[in-house]
Specification:
signal; 216 residues; five-stranded antiparallel β-sheet; Immunoglobulin-like; five-stranded mixed β-sheet; single chain; mainly beta; 1 helix; Ig-like_dom_sf; disordered C terminus; Ig_sub; 19 strands
């Protein structure tokens, strides 16, 4: 056998072994390990998983996402009352996504995916999971008599904002900036259009000096 043929055969053998190994390990891969989302929005947390396909008769019988355990057993999110009507799974082949709608700040947590096979010991949890941070909006003064509706997350553009003064909608340009006439004791808040049920929890009262502080 020539040296070239031997080298080609060696390369092919390595590829075969590499492909075989990828089918004999247990893994869960999360494309994003940290996600930030605004309160009231919808988030998708996804993963890809693999297991020993070459093992005869081995198949996946259940898939779930969880944030807590009971007696060391993961608790399926779909069974938790705080997620009722807000959670869905979309799983196909070796991919599985978790959808959470109408996000709340209390949803901030670490989410993990687990799959279970028809083998007694064939259960696997993807560590360390995905960290989800849910934040609300807040109004901040960025210039004299000019204010901005801020989120600690980088919200995808384009987004339309709604401003409220004394809890009444202000008919102005739907941007994150507000520079309308504000008098002493006026209360200002903002929301993202489409998520009006989740206005900024921080309502600001403006003093004659133009300073802003949380109202009570």
């Amino acid at each position: 056998m020539s040296s070239a043929a031997a080298e080609n055969g060696f390369v092919i053998l390595l590829l075969v072994l590499s492909g075989t190994r990828s089918q004999t390990i247990w893994t869960v891969f999360y494309p994003s390990s940290n996600i930030c989302a605004s309160e009231g929005s919808t988030v998708e947390i996804s993963c890809n998983y693999s297991y020993p396909h070459l093992q005869r008769g081995l198949s996946v019988v259940d898939r779930l996402w969880f944030i807590s355990e009971e007696d060391k057993v993961p608790v399926d999110l779909r069974t938790l009352s705080q997620f009722a009507g807000r959670v869905e799974y979309f799983c196909h082949s070796n991919k599985c996504s978790l959808i959470i709608r109408k996000l709340r700040e209390s949803d901030s947590n670490v989410y993990k995916f687990r799959f279970i096979t028809n083998m007694e010991t064939g259960k696997y949890t993807g560590e360390p999971g995905v960290s989800l941070r849910v934040t609300g909006l807040k109004v901040k003064e960025y210039n004299t008599k000019k204010y901005i509706c801020e989120s600690q997350c980088n919200l995808a553009d384009p987004i339309s904002y709604i401003w409220y003064k004394n809890e009444e909608k202000v008919e102005r340009s739907p941007t994150k900036y507000y520079s309308g006439n504000v008098r002493y004791s006026d209360l200002i808040s903002c929301a993202v259009k489409g998520h009006e049920d989740f206005p900024s929890p921080l309502k600001c009262e403006f003093t004659p000096s133009g300073s802003c502080f949380q109202s009570v």
